Structures are given as structure tokens and as C-alpha cells.
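REVIEWER CHECKLIST
Item 1: Sequence provided? yes
Item 2: Single chain? yes
Item 3: Sequence as submitted:
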Amino acid sequence: MNPANIYESIPENPDTEIFNDIISTPHVRIERIISKGHTPPEDGWYDQEENEWVMVLQGSGTLTFEDGSVAHLSKGDHINIPAHCRHRVSWTDPDQLTIWLAVFYK
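Item 4: Structure as written out by the authors:
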């Protein structure tokens, strides 16, 4: 087995948000997300079948929930989002990369 590094193969100025599966099984999926000022369209709500635990490894971003609540996350912050809790990424730092680690589980 060869080790990998979560900070490898990261472009300095990505044109779009980047999603990379690290592990994917029928019960859990771990994903690295790279943002730099990227946000989905205003109507781009996530409504997922799985629960999602997400942590910011670098940078910062803001999650907005359909109920109007807002969570600003910086390096080291994490949050658990239950399945079907509609949310969106409403802001990511435009001046530095934001690296998210997301764990989707049933």
C-alpha cells in the first residue's frame, strides 16, 4: 500500500471547485473539496441522501441552511449535517484555497 497526502495535486488557482473521492464504499464516502471563491448558483441547494460530516483543513467558508441559519467554518472547524438538511456553500475565501474534507455516511 502506498500512502497519499491530502495536500498533493492541488492547483493554485482552480477555475472551478474540485471534488476528489478519497474512499468510496456502499456505506461511506470520503471526499476532498477544493474551493477558491467558488459557490454554487443561488438555487444550488444540496439535499443529500447521506449524512455529511465536513471539516475545513485550510482556508474558510460559509454554509447557509434552508432554515436561515449560517455556519462560518475556518481551519479546524467541523460540522455534521443530517441527511436531507438542505444547505449550500454561500461563500469561500476568494484570496486563498479552502480545502474541505467531507465524510458522507448512512
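Item 5: Key structural point noted by reviewer: The chain has a mean pLDDT of 95.
Item 6: Recommendation: ____
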